[in-house]
Request: fold
Amino acid sequence: MADRNDTGLLAPAERDLRLDLMRGIGQWMVFLDHIPYDIVSWLTLRNYGFSDAAEFFVFISGYTAGFVYGPAIANRQFLAATKRLLKRAWQLYIAHIFLFLFFIAQIARAARRFDNPMYGNEYNIYLFLEHPDVMIGQALMLKFKPVDLDVLPLYIVLVLSLPAILWGLLKRPAWTLLGSAILYVLARIFDWNLPSFPSGNWYFNPFAWQLLFVFGAWCGVTKAAKIAPLIRSRAVLFLALAWIAFSFLIVMTWHVPWLDALVPKWMIHIIYPIDKSDLDMFRLIHFLALAAVFVRYVPRSWPMLHSRLLQPLIAIGQNSLPIFCLGVFLSFAAHWFLVQIEGDILAQILVSFAGMMTMVAVAWVLNRFKALPDHFALPKAPAPEQVV
Reply:
């Protein structure tokens, strides 16, 4: 999403390393969650609460966009900011198409070489292999998406809507937030979504997920300071911890069947289904509870943010888009390798660790590359000889 280092609209403010840290942790979680039946994926958030890394990415993307482009629009640079956002949306689109093509090629090669059609069915590409002429057109229109490639189209749509969102948040913040909430409710009631091909809808419903994105942008345009006293209050801390504990207990019933009998029937009717596609309110509240606790106990000046221990994760977070693309390939490669060798728990741990370290190494290289100078001085031409 928005990277304030490439905006050039205003003088850059101090970078909030907490955002990079959470993006880095989220990238590891996405990589592990995309490896089926991986024992190491038990370390990820989705196994212990309603929300997962998706909520963190969408909120942080909105927050970063508000923090970077909000001041530019407030400074009457709306057209310049819009140009940058359109350019960013185009970059995301190109990244998605290239990721799509290489991902399809990777899966198709594995399925054909090892005569295993499971990969085509498991990753929803069998139609592409049968009708590539039709499916390429649908992919270019963001209607056809293999498994694990749903999030970039969501970001593209959200970034395209950012100029209007930020203008509204700066001019009428309360009305813009209210409008976002109303759109969220109407989308859930009337099942509004964008169509997929050959059937169904987008996995990440942009009409629903925009609420978290808009709230993040609202916080990013310095409105978070207005609710800071509320976030730091004991009442909010108590409610947040209570909801996190409640979420944990409910999720444990998914993993331990006999615990399910302890949940009252009336509560089951209220809770389920906890829908990710339409950003169920239980997921949204769980994320907000986690964010409130995180902000309370991890201040912006936390010394550990500058420690060597967290630098690998922060480096990953600072290169979120390329590392996400890399993680998609690594997760499939890890899955393929474990299937081929019928990997046990030790193999799952080693493969997962190798993938995570690969992401760290690539992020380090990307940071070193970005540190190289963009300009260089031309050599001075020799002075012309004087003719006597």
Remarks:
- DSSP finds 16 helices and no strands in the chain.
- Residues 4-369 form one domain.
